[in-house]
User: Fold this.
Amino acid sequence: MKVPTDTLQTACSDFEEDLVLHYYGDGSEAERNRVEAHLQECAPCRAFLEDLRKLLPRMAKPNDLPQSFWDSYYRETLEKLAALEERKFWWRNFFAPMRAWMLPALGTAAVAVLAVALIFTKGHWNFSLKQPGENIPQEILVDTNQLEFFKSMDMLEALSKLETLEGTKSETGHSHT
Amino acid sequence: MIKRTIGLLALCSVLLLPVSSWARDGGDNWGRLSPQERENVRRNYQRWQNLPPQDKEHLREEWDRFKNLPPDQRDNLRRRYDELRKQRRGDKR
Assistant:
């Protein structure tokens, strides 16, 4: 008993393409007549054409898939696209739970906090690239009064003498030796 | 939305620049001194650390007294001190 298979019979190699075209009705009239003439005298090519007639309709026949399949396919495609979009803009996840007004509000609050911090830490910021005073505490460097004091220290040690020279020393002032 | 927020933050940062520079001013006293003045402050601070407490107290009192003098007297005293210092340097040479 012959077992049907999905393999095509072997045709003449010169006519294989022409037979396929012949099956689809393509080609010129002369070409078709040439193929018809060959088919009458070539059994393998006839068998090949017969196989084409059996197999090609099966191959071309579209699967009639149920609507549920297409619904599921559509849903999965959307989910994949959403996942792709999410990976592309992963940083948006940080802000996703926030409401639309929360982000600008938090940003403004952060700026306000920064401003307040700058105001209340006035004098403790040292952005300068200049070399700071070695071994001099920061509280002296940022305090104008302290800096003036250390600038004037030599003069202060001689203040009484200077006042005597100037004749400006007050009666209540004490002397320094 | 995100672009607008970033723009808003950038605008706020620009507006904060004056505050930032104002905050820096306090820390820039040292930067405004001349190299000679810095050296002088360094030297005096090191001397100050080795002074006995009574001398420190005395200098603080002299500083308070000097600050309370009228500005013209302060200027006269500074000028006199500079003259004496220059004179002393001239004598050494």
Summary: The mean pLDDT of chain B is 81. DSSP finds five helices and no strands in chain B.
